[in-house]
Design brief:
With 310 residues, the protein is of the alpha/beta class. The chain has helices at 48-56, 95-107, 113-126, 142-155, 172-189, 200-206, 235-239, 242-258, 286-290, 302-305; strands at 6-17, 20-32, 37-41, 63-68, 71-72, 80-83, 160-164, 192-196, 209-213, 221-226, 265-266, 272-273. Bound molecules: adenosine-5'-diphosphate and magnesium ion (MG).
Length: 310
């Protein structure tokens, strides 16, 4: 097809923690095409965010490197916009202003004031948030905040959209809505996307390829699963499609047979307790979310678990 757009070659990283070295990643290699949608999946703590942060330019690899369109990544830049699990909106700025902030940064010279205004509104329309332009982040639900975060990133017209568990803190219905919007937007705009998820169905539904990471330390890419299901994809039809079922089975096998997490101890209340610092604690319960029943909810964000006004 096309030449390699994003090239991750021989990436490894060692962190300094209290004087001792911790090797998180070893020899990570991945080539992405323009317009490709890739999911990174793997147990909690294996190094997914670290890979994404290296691509974002937020972390510097100890070995190897990342090349985007022929240019080495050495620092963060507007060509690689990041969506985090917990939206990072400015709480004192309105929905409109949060997106405008990014748009003004990127397009101050190339677009007029009126063009920038149209562009902000256009991107908020893409995520169905045009009705809430003047609301503050504190006045909208978690799903809405996440949509504004996505609009803000899209509005920067990044070469690559990096998403770190973007829907992880949302309830299942809101998550499904946002997955569908993201698929539509990506089909229209042809974004190149790297998305971290712990949700197996989400990975299969959205991706062209699923990149499955081995457990750390010294984590690397274990297997890559191509998802050749035709687009547009319909979640209801796919739920019973034997190809979909087989693909999700392959991911589950990788996660729970080939890369089985260390068995967590259970206390008398049946609540899992981690033996190893909590990193793999949520691996097993996430199987529930993989079947689409219950999303893990972040504490302290009441709006995030609530339903969303349409
Ligand atoms: N800045 C850092 N300093 C030290 N250790 C880190 C840092 N960032 C990540 N790690 C460690 O690297 C490993 C991978 O972390 P991370 O990429 O966040 O995992 P994941 O996103 O897959 O849950 C973990 O053991 C984590 O504790
Ligand atoms: Mg992470």
């Amino acid at each position: 097809m096309s030449m390699t757009y994003l090239d991750i070659t021989g990436v490894g990283i060692e962190f300094d923690t209290n004087g001792s070295k911790f090797r998180a990643l070893q020899n990570v290699n991945l080539k992405m095409d323009k317009g490709e949608f890739i999911s990174l999946i793997g147990h909690s703590g294996c190094g997914k965010s670290t890979v994404l942060n290296i691509v974002a330019g937020l972390y510097q690899a100890t070995e190897g490197g990342v090349v985007l369109e022929g240019r080495e990544v050495t620092e963060p830049g507007p060509d690689r916009a990041v969506v985090f699990q917990n939206h990072s909106l400015m709480p004192w700025l309105s929905v409109y202003e949060n997106v405008a902030l990014a748009v003004n940064q990127v397009f101050r010279r190339s677009k007029t004031r009126a063009e920038r205004r149209d562009w902000v509104e256009h991107n908020l329309r893409l995520v169905n948030m045009e009705h809430a332009l003047d609301k503050l982040p504190g006045e909208i639900s978690g799903g809405m905040k996440q949509r504004v975060g996505i609009a803000r990133c899209l509005a920067m017209q990044p070469r690559v959209l990096l998403m770190d568990e973007p829907f992880g803190a949302l309830d299942a219905l809101t998550r499904a809505q946002l997955q569908d919007s993201l698929m539509k937007i990506q089909a229209e705009l042809g974004n190149t996307v790297m998305m971290i998820t712990h949700d197996v169905d989400e990975a299969v539904l959205l991706s062209d390829r699923i990149v499955m990471m081995s457990n750390g330390p010294a984590a690397t890419i274990g297997e890559i699963l191509p998802v050749t299901l035709e687009r547009p994809r319909d979640r209801l039809a796919l739920a019973e499609d034997p190809r979909f079922v087989h693909l999700r089975q392959q991911v589950l096998e990788f996660l729970y047979a080939k890369q089985a997490p260390a068995q967590p101890a259970r206390d008398s209340t049946g609540v899992c307790e981690s033996l190893a610092g909590g990193e793999k604690l949520d691996s097993a319960p996430r199987l529930v979310s993989a079947t689409g029943n219950e999303a893990p909810v972040k504490a302290g964000e009441p709006g995030d678990s609530g339903s969303e006004a349409a």
